[in-house]
Specification:
Blueprint lengths: L1 H32 L29 E5 L8 E9 L5 E8 L8 E7 L10 E4 L1 H8 L5 E9 L5 E8 L8 E7 L10 E2 L11 E2 L4 E2 L5 E7 L5 E7 L5 E6 L6 E8 L5 E7 L6 E7 L10 E6 L6 E4 L5 E5 L8 E7 L7 E8 L11 E8 L4 E8 L3 E8 H5 L2
Antiparallel strand pairs: 1-25, 2-3, 3-4, 4-5, 6-7, 7-8, 8-9, 10-12, 11-12, 12-13, 13-14, 15-16, 16-17, 17-18, 19-20, 20-21, 21-22, 23-24, 24-25
């Protein structure tokens, strides 16, 4: 009798489980389909004009490297970001802790003094506890901070948090500072969808539009991977959301405006069959994007970051390898990303012979008012490397 009852019960359970799974999938992808778009706003990238003279003779090649934080304050560090403050100093942030994704991981900060060339000691900017207190919810982990300074001098910090599960269940939070990072507002979640508000993460550098609104490159990880662009009003609320890539294997877009309308997005590739840096183009200020293409540069499933110099060249910091993150290289394009040349190696496994893990990853850089380019990246998951140089050094490559 027991054997006879099994066939009649099992289909019901299977149907219930299947329906539940389909429901979860629909909920997961409704954020992708959701739009509150009015399209009444203009789509024009903000292009900063002119630079002040630096204290260093810009006709003389200048290149310097060092580290931000003292080794050993936390066992691991990762995913740095940097921004120029109103006084010309720099603010850098990253996450550190016992290991990635655990409760003791926090967002750390340090200030670089432009006059002395030295970094201050590390201090915690925010972590799971105070983020959870601000949001009124349990926060298990935080990560991937990125910084932006708007035209009024306000500093924006975007970072991800997750309450349960892996990073694919993350949401994006924002804090702001109006006093060069000394004090910060309470954390606030960005509502990227009215349904669950899950699986939106940030890694690429934010940028500005002509009307003062913020372009925030984000990405989706749950079930499939793709890049998106959020457009935020000056009060931090979302005014638009656009899909950048739809191939299911691209993430962590780095958007670089070329002029007021044209731009390029560089994307990390999550497919072992492709293993190349991916790209997409826009000619309408980011409102729509071309099909994702492959650049002639390798990508070992790792973050990349692009930047445009004052002479119009495009620079890309990336891992010049198909499998490993054991170098950090510089590629340059002088034709708006159509062709590329690898011109320099910032770090390579051959430079570090201490028997430890060889990883140089997650680059982030800015072009400051004094015409210096500052690059920060993860160095062996133990320290944050800081390299800066001028245009004359670039021209000599």
């Amino acid at each position: 009798m027991q054997l006879n009852t099994i066939p009649s019960i099992t289909p019901v359970r299977i149907r219930g489980a299947t329906a539940g799974f389909i429901f979860l999938v629909i909920l997961a992808f409704l954020p992708v389909l959701y739009k509150e778009f009015s399209y009444t706003h203009t789509w024009q990238f903000y292009i900063q004009e002119g630079q002040k003279s630096s204290g260093i003779n810009n006709h003389v090649p200048f290149y310097r490297n060092g580290f931000i934080q003292i080794e050993g304050q936390t066992p691991i560090v990762h995913s740095p970001s940097v921004v120029e403050l109103n006084d010309g100093n720099l603010l850098a942030v990253w996450y550190g802790g016992t290991r990635e994704g655990v409760k003791d991981v926090a967002i750390y900060r340090s200030i670089w003094n432009r006059q002395t060339g030295e970094w201050t000691g590390d201090s915690i900017l925010t972590g799971p506890s105070d983020t959870g207190e601000d949001l009124g919810r349990y926060i298990r982990k935080v990560g991937n901070p990125v910084l932006l300074k708007d035209v009024d001098g306000k500093i924006w910090l975007f970072y991800v948090s997750a309450s349960v599960g892996a990073w694919s269940g993350s949401t994006v939070n924002v804090r702001t500072s109006i006093d060069n990072g000394l004090h910060w507002s309470e954390a606030r979640r960005l509502v990227t969808s009215p349904f669950l508000n899950l699986s939106t993460l940030v890694r690429g550098a934010p940028f500005l539009y002509n009307d003062g609104s913020i372009g925030l490159p984000v990405y989706h990880e749950f079930l499939i991977k793709f890049g998106e662009l959020l457009r935020l009003r000056t009060d931090g609320t979302i005014m638009d959301k656009v899909r950048i890539s739809g191939d299911g294997t691209s993430l962590q877009p780095s958007v670089v405006p070329l002029d007021s309308k044209r731009g390029i997005a560089f994307l990390r590739c999550n497919s072992s069959s492709t293993s190349r840096v991916l790209s997409s183009f826009t000619d309408d200020g980011g409102r729509s994007w071309s099909e994702v293409g492959k650049l002639p540069l390798p990508n070992p499933d790792s973050s990349v970051m692009g930047i445009r110099t004052r002479d119009g060249s495009l620079l890309l910091a990336f891992n010049n390898s198909y499998k490993n993150r054991d170098n950090m290289s510089l590629a340059r394009s002088v034709d708006d990303g159509q062709t590329w040349e690898v011109v320099h190696v910032f770090d390579d496994r051959g430079y570090v012979n201490d028997g430890n893990r060889k990883e140089f990853s997650y680059p982030f850089w800015i072009h400051t008012r004094d015409d210096m380019i500052h690059l920060v990246y993860t160095w062996n998951r133990k320290r944050i490397r800081h390299i800066y140089f001028n245009s004359s050094w670039l021209e000599g490559l």
